[in-house]
Every structure is written in structure tokens, then in C-alpha cells.
Amino acid sequence: MAENVPSGLLEACLVLGVSSERLKDIHLLQGKGKESLVEAEVLQVHAPPFVTKESSSNGTQQDLAPAFSRTQRRRSFKKKRDRPLSTISDSGQTNEPVVAASDDLSVPQNIDLIALLQLCFPDGLRITNESREDSYHFLVFTDVFGNQTHGVVAQYCKPVHFHQDNGIHQNGQQLNKLQRLYTTYSICVISKYPYYNALRDCLSGFLLQLKTSRLFDFEEQVKEFSAKLALVPIPPPGPLHVVFNLRPFQIELPSRLDVDRPVMDLDLHLPFLCFKPKQILQIISSILMEQRVVFLSTDWAKLTLVSECFMVFIHPLRWQHTFVPVLSRQMLDFIMAPTAFLMGCHTSHFDEVAEELDELVLIDIDQGTVSSSSSNRLELPDVPLTARECFIFRAKGLQLHYDLDVCHAASRTDINELRAHRRQWQRKVNSVILNITMELIVNIFSEVCDFLNYGHRVFNSEEFLRSREMTDHTFYKKVLDTHIFHSFLRDRLNQKNDAFTRMQLNIRSETRRMRTMTESPRRPTMEVISRKYLRPENGLNSRLGMSMPNLADHRLLTVPVRQTSMGTMTFQSGSWSPSRPIKTFKLPEFPPPLSYQYVQGYYNDLIRELSKAISAASPDDSALLARYYYLRGLVNSVAGKRVDALADFQSLYKTDMDIFPAELLNALVESLPAEERRTAERRPDLKRLISRVKRENERDRARPVDGGSVKRFELPKKHLHMEDFVQRVQESGIVRDQGTIQRLFEALTVGQQKQVDPETFCFFYNYWKETEAAAQDVDLPAVVLEHLETDECVYKLSSSVKTSYGVGKIAMTQRRLFLLTEGRPGYVEITKFRDIEDVKISSAPFLLLRIPALKIKTSHRKETFEANLKSECDLWHLMIKEMWAGRKMADNHKDPQFMEQALTNTLLMDAVVGCLQSQKAIFAATKLAYFDKKKLEVPMMVPKTTSDTLKHKINPSLDQTSPQAVDVLLYTPGQLGVSELDGGGNPKLWCALSDGKVLVFDAASWSMQHNSVQVGKSRLNCMLAVNQQQLWIGSKDSFIYIINSRSVSCNKQLTEHRGEVTGLALEERTDKFSQTVAYSCSEDSSVIVWDVSTLQVKRQFRVSCDRLQSIQIHNGMLWCCGRDCLLEVRRNGTVHRKVSLPDHLLSSPRGFSSFLLFNESQELWAGLAEAGELCVWHCRDLSKPFIRIQLKDCAGVVCMIKVKNQIWVGCRGRSADGKTRGKIYVLNKDRYTVEKELMAHEDSVQTLCSAEDRYMLSGAAQADGKIGIWKVE
Is 359 left (phi over 0), alpha (psi -120 to 50) or beta? Predict the structure, then answer.
């Protein structure tokens, strides 16, 4: 098998010490008074394979993996042939040599023997007169590609006896005068995974065995010990641990907590026992800033364990530089490296290290201190205040002492029971610490995501820094330039769904979720200003705010302004993952590990045990089933049962795709002999699997090796044409909408060649940012704040002017205009934008001059407001008219995004006038008056019926540069007793956009609840909630994707369809004991019946029609809608009845588009894709003439749904100008009449869904891309 086929627990096991030849020389030197520090040698190397199958009868060698560990490339290592070494055992008997004569060693290629010798004896190998206790320490090896392997070293002493005449005692001859000395040997177990505790336990039990066994069996015993470890499979990420017996201990291998995390077999509370929370934060800060860090301790074991804990604490950020937690005496020159590193050495070298170099961060684990090599204090910026205070608050509540937790419990008499209880306590403590440290990282970097442009992969670092507190700038400036942060940015831009993302979503407030639904320029809200005014000393992060959409009543969405302080505030608790109960799987007892037949028998026993576990597991516990399938596939692959292994890995599609071993599967497919490949390809499921592996390999080759580039935003240095200008503005984060940017381009290029020069762009960008910065310093009196909503922002402030309400400054928010009076500060409301009746410019006489004045007439006051704005008059006139028009359209269309877009337009006008500063500036700004012009082109008023029925509109494409089609909508009701961590109990709206993107909205507030979930790359056609935890989605790529509706993650797929999946249906259960059955159909007219609990195919059949488009279950029968007919099908797939396309529509190439069935009236309603009519048949007698219902101005029916006594029909409508419009017709199903005709969208209605018969939701095609929420009467 290939090199990357599974790696088990063991990579290699080595024995190191001093040879017998050297022992004699050492004794001679000792007799001369020389120091007994000697050079260590490699005495034994054991690495897989330990057994191989004998040649078959035809002389060919079977290519079977002999163990879970990789078959590694090797290189020769020349070893001197040892002379026999005489020893005396504790009983006084003479035994064979400790290190027998051996041939040259074969060493795995990835092991650096020179470094290993030094690291296994970091303080040197000595021959002593006294015995020492066994000791353990831990190593980390990193190759040039950054891949790590890990070592656990056990050091133990052995006595060596010499004759008085310098001869080594041997052959059982008893002499009177012997000199007893002690030498140290090291056994080093190297693993690809950091199982520090588990391997230490393994070595502890093995050393106990060595001390009670005969010494001439030493090499064979080490080999057997190594071979047993090579038989241990590594559990996949998730809730299943592997347990095995290695007497006297029962060893438990914990799985990775998550796919994106490494194995964690550590006691994470160790750093909290060694350091105070403040020092822990200093160390984390040093690592994040990529300083040169040196850990110091008198205990070699602590160096690696504590260092590795800090690597866990900074997750998901990853240390990118040299990581050598244990440096031997000979390696101290490594500290001279000029680049960032993290190393560890003995405390005795403290002075030597500190004197040699400046600017080292020295961390004394034993003393719990953090200092600099140049001073006793560490002069590095602190972690930001909010994150720091939250971490210290959480750390104070940690329960770190096991003895205190068990002092009330009885003493345990069984060692394995005691160890299991200790592990359970450690898991609990680790889980709490992981949440605390993850919360720290989220608090530091959470808002980085708000300054990323995902489309162009740009991070606006300057804008991010502006949003930070001034006291935190030094910290962020250092961190933002590091490799570790660059890698973190790349993961964010790749939208990696890791622990950071999940906790970020869990702790995100409702206000923050609402802000993601708007595209307003960033300005501080009244809530932020209030806090700033009330508590200027408050250290909370005053991030720039964004306004929120007006969902029926904005007051429902505001947050009360309240006084807070760091000393009394309560921190919101978050978690990166719901806690799951841990299951264990016990491996069979190890066989004689050096016999091929016994090893194969062990594999067969292991497969049987896993098969039993699969049979016993509940079908609902798919996570556990997936781990069993993974392990059985792993065992089958190393046992040579490749086809069975493929079948097991194929099962992961239906249980948990997150742990799918792509590399292993690729190697497995490539290693298939011709006969086995033919066997596999005769099975349809395995044939599809092999084909998919090939496709994925081709895609992987096309992907960037580094995961994609990350750019920092930079101002342009050359002239920008339209395309380049659009990209640069989007990168800047000013605005994303492509149409708005194109109008901005026209404004900046008025009267000149159609390109923007770098100076103009720079002036515009700087003016925009200066305006934002000025808004941060708006100091509003408390009397003013009382009149404004907490989510309002001051976007524009005039100079002091004379008005009809007094002298002061005119202020503009997203809702109103008001006057900030001078002298005695006060608030005078001018008008809300929705109350404006007219805005015009006039001139006010002053002596011999005519001063330009702005007049605003409102519906709430008889008198007209007048302001002598002078040179500002034209700009304010344009801005107020645009805001007025935007407000009117937002109110009429129930779409708050119109107001947001109008606000963006007005601020762009302000920036354009400010940067151009010429006579043409006002004319240029008129190019951005989009809504003011639009109200002249199209009627502002929406038909009354539409306006009365429409509740609200939301735009799911706000993070896109252009609208995306809303292909499918699905509403799922709320669930009682479900925590926020498990997805929350509120109802959800699931929205499928173009190219396989699924968004989730909280249907209680219509706010974005989660980041998008990518479900394949193709168009999604249908969605079905099969139960409270599973959401099925049919895709154009022929797959059915299964989303866990609580975790909002997609980790299962059904791959049995061969064509585009077009429909899904759920059969109602006849009683609580019956199985839940789902149906799916594809365009090739195939229907599959599924057992929902097991995801197994129950039946499969084909129906005779042209492009099967949708299905429904009615009275125990399956109804199918094809282009050319409607079919009623029995459970076995035979056709019961058929309704053909009406004669007058036979020429329509697309035929039927949708249909509905009703139990109460026994009617069949059908819509036609290219005709503005509905056809209604009586189900009891389909031969009766059908009823035709004409839909005025309808070009084709797209979808239909029944709500109460109404039929809602989504259509492609025709407008007077010939453009496609989305229309909804509401019909009375008893009278067959159209009750309402709704002008729903600016493009075709693609989908309809009902929210508990109270609301109807409609999704539009790409030209509109919005979701309409309609009242149902």
C-alpha cells in the first residue's frame, strides 16, 4: 500500500544507550579519574512492518499492509558489532548480553538519529555509582514541510559489574571483587500523533515487565512491544475512543475532538497550576506576536507538556515557526536563530541563554515567571482589555485540583477504575479550559471577519485597526503582520467551519446578527455614543456600528442603553461545540504480534467486534455508526480486504462525511489489483465511489497548494478603468453592490476620460474615511440622545447655519433630520424622512445678497422649515431628496434595503463632492441619485392589494456583489427545550441560493442566524424536513445532501440517484412504531424509497414520463409530475392512473411545471410552465372534463402551494415594458377564482413556502434575488 495509508499508533521504537565496547573503555577511563559523561548510541530500531505474508505458491508477494502503521522508506545505519557484555542480575545469576550482537540497522528515513540521541539524553548520558528512578520526557520532531511527529522517552537504570582487573563479569563465574556501576538506557516510542499520556502508560507497563523478565530476551521483548503498538488503530475524530489492554494497564486512546483539531492527550490545567492568568495571557500574547520564546524548567517533561498546552490554547491559529520544546546541551546554539521560535531548555542554562541574546521571552515554568532576556519585565503589549478581563474572570472559576473533587468519594480498589475516573475528570476540566481559551481567541479576533472581502480575498487591515481601541493598536499592529495571523485569515476567507466559527456564532448577539443583514456604512449608533457619553472611561470595545433593518417596528429590535463597567459586567458564555457522551471500543487481546497468521486472526476478530458494534448501535446515532464504519474500513484495508474497506468508507456518506478519509481512500483505490477493481466496479455504489475519488483528485490538483492567497488592501498606483475600479472599491469595503459602484465611477469621471486616476481615488477614499472618523467623535448631549433610537447613527452634520427653528447644525440619521441648537444645547426635530412632502431650494434675502436656502415641507407641521445652508445647499438638497425617495420606496415595498441603499448613495454623494471640490461636483453627485431618478421612471406606489398583503422583504444576497436567485425556501417550526448551543428553539427559514449555498434565518426576527452552508456546487432544487434533526436537499449534481438542522452542518449524502434530484416527499407514519419513509425522484424518471432512520434504500423503480419534476404522497399513493403527464403510482412502482397534457397545450415543450392534491375536495390542480392557466381535475374521475383557470398577464406557472382555503401560485409575469416580473396569484380553491393578484418581485417567483399558515414566503429569480414575507388571511 502507499505511504499515506493509515498511520497507527507506532511509527518506530528505538533503544538507546551505551554499547558493551564503550562500557569497557569507560571503566578504564573511570579508573583514571575521568568524568563518566559518555556518548550514547542507537542500539535497536524497530519499525513496521513486523510481519509479512509468505510468498504465495506462484512465487509472487502479496502486497498487504501488515499493520496500521505506514510502511516507511528506510535508510541504512552502520552500527558497530558489539562484543558480549557481562552483567549480573539482581539474583546474582549471570545472563546473556543486554545488547546482543546484531547486524547493521535499518532506520526509517524520517528519523534524525543524531538529534534523537541528544534529545533522548538531553543532559547527557552518565555512568554513575548510584541508581536513579525511571523518568519520562516528551519530544516533538518537525520536518521541512511542517509535519510533526512525537516521541515519548522512558529512561531507566541498569547495573553493570566489572572485575577488579577491568574485565567485564560474564558466563556465570563468581569472582570476589566486583565494582558496581549504573548506566542509563532510553526507550523512545515515536508516533505520528501526540499521545503523550497513553504512550507513557504503555512504556510504564513495559518497563515493569522488563524488570521482572530475563535479560537475554530484551531485544525480542522490545520488538514484541513495538509490534503490539503497531496493531492499534487511531480512532477518527468524534465521540469514540479506542481502549486496549497492555498489562497491567488498560490504555485509552482519545480521539480528536474535531476534524480541525489535533489529537489532545494532555492535561490542559498544567499551565494554570504553573502560572497565574496574567502570565498565561503574556505567554499567549508572545506566541501570537511570533516572539522568540524559551521555556525553562528543571523537569524535561514539563517543557513539552506545557508548550503543547499553549499550542492548544491558541487554536485555530497555528504556530508556523521552529518548535523544539526540548533542547539538549549540544543544541543550545539553536537559540541564536534570528527568526521566531519556541524552544525549551533546562533552567541551569538560564544565565547562559539570557546573556547571549536580547529580546528573548524567557518563561520559567518552575517559578511561574515571564520575563525578557534584556530586563526582568516583559515589554510586550497586553491582550486587548475586554478579552483579557473576560479570560481572567473565567480562569478564576476553574476547579483544577483532582484531590479536592474526590475527597468525598470512597477509595477505589481497582487501578483501571481509578485511572478511568481520573480521565473522566480530566476530560471535564479540559473541556472547560478549551472553551475559555477559545473564547479568548474569539474575543480577540472575532471582528476580523467584518473587514474581509471574500470575493477578492482582501483584508482591510487599516480599517480594522481604526475600529480598535487606541490602547490595543500596538498589540494588533504586531499580530497582523505575523505568519500565524496570515494563516488564520486564509482559513476565514476559505470560510472554514471550525471551532472558532462555531463559537463566534454562539456568542454573537441578536443585534450583531441584525447588523449582518444591512449594508449601511459604518457609523457609531446612539447606543455606542450613549455608553461613550455616560462612561468615558469604559474600556469596552466601541466598534463602529451599522444600522438595522426596520422589521415592521424598529423598536422591537433595539437594545436598551444601560450603564456597564468591567468590574460588574457579566460575560456572555459561549461554547465551540455541544458536549457529546464519549463511547469506548475495546480492541481484542493482542496475539503473538510477530506471527502473520495470528495477526490476521486478530484483524478478523477486530472486524467481527466492529460488525457487532455496528449491529448494536442505534440507527439514529449516526455519529457513532460512522466511527465504527471508519474503524472497520481501516482494519479491512490493512487486512487486505480492500473491497470491503471501500464499502465501509462508502457508508460514511450516509453517516458522517466530515471524517471521510480522502487520502486513504485514494491510496486504497490506486492499490486495487485488476481483479478486485473489477469486483468493486460490479457494485454500483462502489463504482460511483471510485469515480468520485478520481474527480476529487483532479479538483485537488487544481486547487492552490497554500489554500489561496490573502491580500491587504492598498490604494491604486495607476489609472483605473471600470472593471478595476469596481474591484478596488469592493476591496476597500466602502460598498459591495456592483451597480452602485458603477454609478460612483460615472460620478468621478464626469467630463473626462472614463478612468479614475490614482489621486482622485485616494482623495475620495481618504475623505470617506475621514468622515467615518469624524462620526466617531460626535458628542451628543444627553438631552439629544433621549429623542433618538439606540440603533440610529448620525451620518451627516452641517456647519452652523441660521434656520427657521434657530441657529444650529442640521444632523441627518437614517430616519430623520434634526437641529442641534447652539448656545444652550438642545434638540429640535425637523422631520422624519417618511413625513416629507416637498424639498426645494430658494433664496433668502440678506441686505443686498440672495443666500441659497433649503425649504422642507412636512405633513406634521404647517410651517415650512427653512435653512440658509449657503454653499452646502445643493448637496443637502440632493441628499435629502434621495433619502426621502428611498424611504418612500422602502415603505411602499416593505423592503428596508431600499433605505439602506439610499443612505449609502447620499454618503457617496457627500464623498464625491468633498473630493472633487469643483463646479462639476454637484452635477457629478447627481449620478448617484438612484432612487430620486427611479421614482420618475416607475410608479412609487405599490398596488394597494400588494401593499396590504406584503409584510416585509429581506435580501439574502447582501454579502454578494450581485443578487443571487432564491431557488428553494423551507420553513421549519421551533422546538421546545432545545438550547441555543443545539441550534436554538426558534423557527428557522432555510434559503437555498445559487451554486449550492444555504442560508439560515431566525424566523422570529428574520435575522441571519448562521453563516452560509455550502452544499455542493450545483443548483438546489428541493428541500424536505424529514424530522427535527434532518433536512434533505436535492441537488442538480444528483446528490441528496443531509443537513443537521440543529448544528446547521452538512455531513451526510445520499448518492444513489444518477440524475438531477428534482423532488422529495415524506410519507406520514401510520402509527408511532412504523418506520418513517421518504421518497425522492430525479429527472431520469427514477424514484427511490428511503428508510429515514437507516438511510437505506427500500425500493427503487422508474416511471414512464418526460423529465420527472416533483412528487407527492396522497392517500397512500405516489403522484408524479412529469413534463408530459401526471401519474398516480402504487407502492411497487406500477402506474395506477395517468393524466396527459391537455390537447391545447401539446405544443408546449415544457408542459406541466407543478401540481397540488387535496384530501378534502379530492382535486388535482396543475400549473403549466409556458401558459398562464391552471387545470383542475376531480381525482375520483379523471375522465371528467377539467376546469381551466386563466391567470391574467401570466407567462407561466412556476410553483403552487395550498394555505388554508387558498391556492398561492408563483408565476413569471409580464409587465407593460415587456420585462419579466414575479407575480403571485391567490385563488379561492372552492370558487376557482383569483382573489388577489400580487406584484411580488422584479423577476420570476421561483419558490413558495408557508410559515404555519400565518405567513407565505416567496423567493425570486436572480434579477431580484429577494424574499417576500406575505400575510395570509
Answer: left
Looking at 154-250, list the stretches that DSSP marks H as alpha helix, in order from N- to C-terminal side: 196-211, 218-229
pLDDT band of 994, cuts 50, 70, 90: confident
Element (H, E) at 368: none
If DSSP codes are grouped into helix, strand and coil, which group holds residue 58? coil
Closest by CA position to 1232, among listed 1191, 1185, 1171: 1191
* CA-based nearest residue to 541, from 384, 393, 381: 384
pLDDT at 506 over 80: no
Sheet holding 249-253, edge to edge: 249-253, 240-246, 583-586
Q: Which amino acid is at 1073?
A: F
* Cα-based angle 1008, 1014, 1016 (whole degrees, multiple of 5): 150
d(CA 752, CA 720): 13
* Residue among 1084, 1142, 1076 nearest 1113 (CA): 1076
Question: Given its phi and psi angles, is residue 1050 left (phi above 0), alpha (psi -120 to 50 degrees) or beta?
Answer: beta
Which of 92-106, 277-291, 914-928 shows the lowest per-residue confidence on average (mean pLDDT)? 92-106
- 131 and 183 in contact (C-beta within 8 Å)? no
Q: Identify the pLDDT of residue 82.
A: 43
**Per-residue pLDDT tens digits for 820-851:** 998 777 899 999 999 999 999 988 766 557 78
Written as one letter, the residue type at 607 is I
How distant is the alpha carbon of residue 828 from its chain centre?
49
Three-state SS at 1075: coil
Q: Do residues 998 and 1041 lie in contact, with contact meaning Cβ atoms separated by under 8 Å?
A: no
Grid coordinates given for 252: 485509552
As a dihedral over the C-alpha atoms of residue 676, residue 677, residue 683, residue 689, rounded to 10 degrees, the angle is 130
Q: Say how many residues make up the chain.
A: 1273
**Banded model confidence at residue 1213, pLDDT cuts 50, 70, 90:** confident
Q: 1094-1112: per-residue pLDDT in tens?
A: 899 999 999 999 899 999 9
HSE-CB at 858 with a 13 A cutoff on CA atoms is: 17
522-541 residue pLDDT tens = 566 655 555 544 443 333 23
* Phi, psi angles (nearest 5°) of residue 320: -105, 0
Contact call for residues 233 and 6 (beta carbons, < 8 A): yes
Q: Alpha-carbon distance 287 to 281, whole Å?
A: 10
* Angstrom distance (rounded) from CA 814 to CA 795: 7
The grid coordinates listed for 11 are: 511509527
Phi, psi of 670 (to 5 degrees): -65, -30
Q: Quick one: pLDDT band at residue 513, thresholds 50, 70, 90?
A: low
Q: Is it the case that residue 38 has pLDDT exceeding 60?
A: yes
- Does 248 sit behind a cis peptide bond, omega within 30 degrees of 0 on the bond before it? yes
Measure the CA–CA gap between 912 and 875, rounded to whole angstroms. Answer: 10
Give dist(CA 237, CA 193) in Å, integer.
13
Give helix 300-313 / helix 415-445 axis angle, nearest 10°: 50
Buried b (16+ CB within 10 A) or exposed e, 182-211: ebbbbbbbbbbbbbbbbbbbbbbbbeeebe
Kindly give the residue spans of alpha helices, DSSP state H, lying in 1104-1254.
Answer: none
Q: 516528551: which residue's cell? A: 138
- Chain-centroid distance of CA 771 in Å reads 35
Rg (CA), the chain: 37
Residue type, 677: R
Ordered DSSP codes for 429-441: HHHHHHHHHHHHH
- The residues that bridge with 360 in the sheet, in sequence order, are 292
Q: Please state, as a whole number, how many other Cβ atoms lie within 10 Å of the Cβ of residue 1016.
A: 18
Note the pLDDT tens digit of each residue in 371-390: 887 776 778 899 999 999 99
Cα separation, 483 vs 1262, whole angstroms: 39
Asked whether the bond before 49 is cis by omega within 30 degrees of 0, the reply is yes
Taking the CA of residue 564 as centre, how many other CA atoms within 13 Å lie in the half-sphere pointing to its CB?
Answer: 17
